[in-house]
Amino acid sequence: MKLGQYVTKRLLQFVFVLLGTSIILFTVSHVIPADPVRAAAGPKATPAELEAIRVKLGFDKPLPVQYVIYVTNLLHGDLGRSVVTLRPVIFDLAERLPATLELSVFSLAITVIFGITLGIYSAKNRNRLGDHAIRFLSLGGISMPSFWLALLFQMVFFLRLGWLPGGGRLSSGMVPPAHLTGLYVLDSLLTGNLATLRDALWHMIGPAVAQSAIGIASVIRMMRAGMLEEMTKDYVTMFRSAGVRERTVVYKYVLKNSLVPVITLIGVMFGSILGGSFIIEQVFQWPGVGSYGTQALLNLDFQPIMSITLVMSFMYSFSNLVVDVVYVYLNPKVSYE
Amino acid sequence: MTKTILEIRDLRTYFYTYAGVVKALEGVNLRVNEGDIFGIVGETGCGKSVTALSILRLVPNPGRIIGGEIIFEGRDILKLSEEEMRREIRGKGMAATFQDPSTFLSPSHTIGEHLKDIIKANADDPRGLKGRELNERIISTLAKVNLPDPERVADQYPHELSGGMRQRSMIATGTSGRPSLFIADEATTFLDVTIGAQILRLFQEMNRVDGTTIILITHNLGIISEICNRVAVMYAGQVAETCTTEALFKKPLHPYTVGLLASIPLIDREADELEEIPGTIPNLIHPPEGCRFHPRCKHVMEVCRREVPTICEVSQGHEVACHLFNGEVRSDG
Amino acid sequence: MTTEQAETAEATPRYQELRHSVRLLLSNPVSAAGAAGVLLLLLTAALAPYIAPYDPLAINLQGRFLDPSGEHLFGTDHLGRDVFSRVVWGSRVSLTVGLITLIEASVLGTIVGLVAGYKGGWVDSLVMRITDVFLAFPSIILALAVAAALGRGLTSVMMALGITWWPLYARLIRGQTLSVREEQYIEGARLSGAGGIRIMFKHILPNCMAAIIVQISMDVGFTILAAASMGFLGIGAQHPSPEWGLQCASGAKYLVYQWWISTFPGLAIFLSVISFNLLGDGLRDVLDPRLRRG
Fold first, then answer.
1. Are C249 and A282 spatial neighbours (Cβ–Cβ below 8 Å)?
2. Are C144 and A278 an interchain contact pair (Cβ–Cβ within 8 Å)?
3. Chain C contact present for A153, CB below 8 A
4. B195: helix, coil or strand?
5. Residue ranges per domain, chain B?
6. Do the beta carbons of residue B70 and residue B54 sit within 8 Å?
7. In Å, how far is C135's CA from the nearest CA of chain A?
8. Could you say which of A243, A257, A336 has the minimum Cβ distance to residue B106?
9. pLDDT bucket at B331, cuts 50 / 70 / 90
10. Over 50: is that where the pLDDT of C291 sits?
11. Of B6, B98, C28, C293, which residue has the fewest beta carbons closer than 10 angstroms?
């Protein structure tokens, strides 16, 4: 099947998954809690507020109807209200999303660049010192709790050495660039504000490294294993028998074939970056969706928790869609299945 | 006077595995003349493919060539460095095609890409070869292996082609460097009989028109009879018998060869005339002492159990490694 | 031969293979180190009352923020509790959560996967779609939402993580079942009258065991991490539990001068997870050729 057909098929699947996600989250928010009304209204709600929520979200009605109300609200952009900020969740999210997006994409970029490069290096220099060091570090990377790494990072690079800032997106006293996208790096680039650009990047280093450690480690491991396995494939023997340079064989043929499964992994990494943002943003005081979520968890602010989960899984599903399409584009064989 | 293009003397290739040392090739001797279509025939596991890989010096880990000489166009290629081997011999001097074209081609690259890199690697002036000229070379190489619509094939991926087209594409990868020696390892095993026949025609054409010497490795005696002029029969890592195709079928000497021929069903042979060679192929980690075939041989003698038979030239161009024929004229090249 | 004989014939060589695998595993220094680490962890958890010098919950406001010393190997925290004892007792919490989660996930996932793979058809498609949806949630997000809905506490975490993890096992077993289903001896069992359930559990399941074991050994580390992360975020174990993640969170405020409060629990998590990962890697290498054959 051609690429176009595949994209259509995949889009349908995407919609189906979104539907399924909403059902699961509906179950979590309306069925699982012992008292879903109290959960939605918050632990400090007055009886009047409880009643208002009960009516608004239709808790007195049968489940299917509740679900319809739920989905209708979603489609209207009504994601509930936070009992902490007292604002509609959707406003809070809109305000905080750019920060998380910027950090996540930056982390993903670091993951891809370092993961692939170091993975190739490791495979090429198999069993030599560099390889052993990289393998050791990547084993550590996937075993390390991200919050611990983040805390250690803060402790060493901020508290002891003062090389990195303690948190936030900009130093106090720095004015954020004109709000074009909400992404400070992009905005300061577009407005030619180099000082802000440098400051914003400097603030991203800590959280991004802490966030990508596990991703880089995973990509290295997969890249290395993949390349080593590809090197045993028959077409390598064929090219060698034809007198082709080893460099061409490895960097053109083996590499491309090895990258194919890594693409899927990168999609998964994006998901773990999103999921890890709760912790990372908390430790580095990054004003994004993650720290918003952590606050909500601490206060049992239920509606934001549900909405964040929904939004993040939508983002993740969408990125998987993109990854799958890129995968098929890179691996022509698959589209014929 | 026919020139020898490839001579293998006492080649030994061992595989050092966890289970033990597999003595895959234990003294292989071959002589291939220019212009031959030389067949190497034997059962699975006899070492035919290992021989091919050894000639190319591409024996995979944990294997190693540990002794012998491989003299190609007058040079012992076992003495060359890896870089010399790559630059001067592989692709240009000798090339190969292997049995499963679906794994021997990269799934993520077009046929044209494959050929581009191979042609460039073997061209005398790789930097000068680009653009249109390179493209023309690619198309003409594909046309020479009788691929219809070579322009289209060049833009396709291996999985988009039929089995026969894939095999031809792989043959194209081998011929694009214009080698003098072409090794085809089980080239038709995975193909339909009719497609296989076309591939064999192709080899004959290469041999007749370009003068390419071909070594055809197969377990199928039928293929040997069709296009090969000379044959070597291998058993358990050694060459049992070398002769012309005609001699092989009319006057086989080695008991193994005789047994092989007796076990093929032929149109004019009754089913109950088929004979089996008793026993199984030996364990190559602990091969039998003396002649490796002796445990299964009808004519086994005491000397067979103790001594490895030397090669004897029984008649012009017909060599056997068997104690039954010792004492005849010894072969020394 | 009868079904009985066929079953015994399959079982005995497998037991010998198992012993051979264990020996092979221990010969590799890296996976042996992992095995040692895991063993150490298990012993610590089992013998916690004997190893910990102090009561992990004993508050001593006179002895707050003491530096690590001979008296208090890892120092004391903001409530004067001995960090070393808390770390030792915390091993019980982490191990319990990790193992129970995985038992839930693997049992549920295996049953679903076996049925899906064996029955095929619409059952299989349905299961695949359902797992697709579950796997659409990034990392621990679903677990956080479920745990929030269930209320704070360790049981919520265990249930939430179980819900998040089972689809992975379902998919794994489904894949294995699909490849084993076509094997000859399954056909043989079917022909000799064995029913679906019997085939699934007596014939297909044993062949999946290697894959399950490898997956579990690789996942224990990750479940411990996930549970600790949830503890760090305050949704898991509650005060005064000596759960490692919770300890890291409590100590975060004091990073400047009392670095030991967060560092040692975190180190414990790190070492535990690395041990399981090393062991898992080793197990996978040892069992892999068998996986392919199965």
1. no
2. yes
3. no
4. helix
5. 4-93+179-275, 107-178
6. yes
7. 9
8. A257
9. very low
10. no
11. C293
| A276 contacts C145? CB cut-off 8 A | no
Specify which of A93-107, A165-179, C186-200 reaches the highest per-range mean pLDDT: A93-107
**Which range scores top for mean pLDDT: A277-286, A294-303, A319-328, B281-290?**
A277-286
Widest CA span of chain C, in angstroms? 76
Q: Give CATH superfamily name and number for C21-63+70-291.
A: MetI-like (1.10.3720.10)
Interface test with A, best of C125, C224, C232 (most A CBs within 10 A): C232
Token match 């007198």: residue? A243
Res C270 pLDDT > 90: yes
Shortest Cα–Cα distance, B34 to chain A (Å):
20
Q: Across the interface, which of A235, A240, A260 has its CB nearest the CB of B90?
A: A240
**Which pLDDT belongs to residue B333?**
39
* Closest C-alpha among A79, A77, A39, A36 to residue A59: A36
In single-letter form, the type of residue at position A133 comes to A
Beta carbons within 8 Å of B26's beta carbon, 6+ residues apart:
B12, B236, B237, B238, B287, B292
CA A7, CA A2: separation in Å to the nearest integer?
Answer: 9
CATH fold label, B4-93+179-275: Rossmann fold (3.40.50)
Of A240, A243, A246, the CB nearest to B177: A243
| Nearest-CA distance B119 → chain A (Å) | 9
Tell me, yes or no, if A244 comes closer than 8 A to chain B by beta carbon: yes
For strand B230-235 and strand B238-244, is the pairing parallel, antiparallel, or unpaired? antiparallel
Q: Is A233 on the interface with B (CB under 8 A)?
A: yes
In whole angstroms, give the CA distance from residue B164 to residue C266: 60
Q: Is B328 helix (H, G, I), strand (E, B) or coil?
A: coil
Helical (H) or strand (E) element with B8: strand B4-17
Number of A–C residue contacts, CB under 8 Å: 143
Which chains touch C (3+ CB pairs under 8 A)?
A
- Interval B258-281 mean pLDDT: 74
Q: Measuring CA to CA, which residue among C260, C206, C233, C212 is closest to residue C13? A: C206
Answer whether residue C7 shows pLDDT above 50: no
Domain ranges of chain C: 21-63+70-291
Q: Who's near C127: CB < 8 A, 6+ residues apart?
A: C112, C113, C115, C116, C170, C174
Token pair in block for residue B165: 């087209």
Which pTM was predicted? 0.79
What CA–CA distances, in Å, run from C42 to B325, C39, C93, C177, C222? Answer: 71, 5, 12, 32, 17
Q: Report d(CA B253, CA B241) in Å as an integer.
A: 8
Chain A hits for C225, Cβ within 8 Å: 143, 145
Using H for helix, E for strand and C for coil, what is the string for B290-314? CCCCHHHCCCCCHHHHHCCCCEEEE
pLDDT on residue B126: 64
Specify whether the CB–CB gap between A219 and A121 falls below 8 A: no
Query: Taking Cα atoms as reference points, which of B149, B194, B204 lies closest to residue B171?
Result: B204
pLDDT of res. B53: 92
Sheet holding B75-76, edge to edge: B20-33, B4-17, B63-72, B75-76
Taking the CA of residue A292 and the nearest CA in chain C, the distance in Å comes to 12
At C67 the pLDDT is 83
Nearest to C266 among A28, A39, A151 (CB): A151
Q: Are C106 and C216 in contact (CB under 8 A)?
A: yes
The torsion defined by the Cα of C229, C235, C238 and C242, in degrees rounded to 10, comes to -10
Q: Is the pLDDT of residue C10 over 50?
A: no
Contacts of B248-252 with C-beta under 8 Å, sequence gap 24+, read B248/B224, B249/B225, B251/B318
- The mean pLDDT of chain C is 81
Please tell me if residue A163 touches chain C, with a CB cutoff of 8 Å. no
- Which of A127, A231, A233, A235 to mutate against chain B (most B CBs within 10 Å)? A235
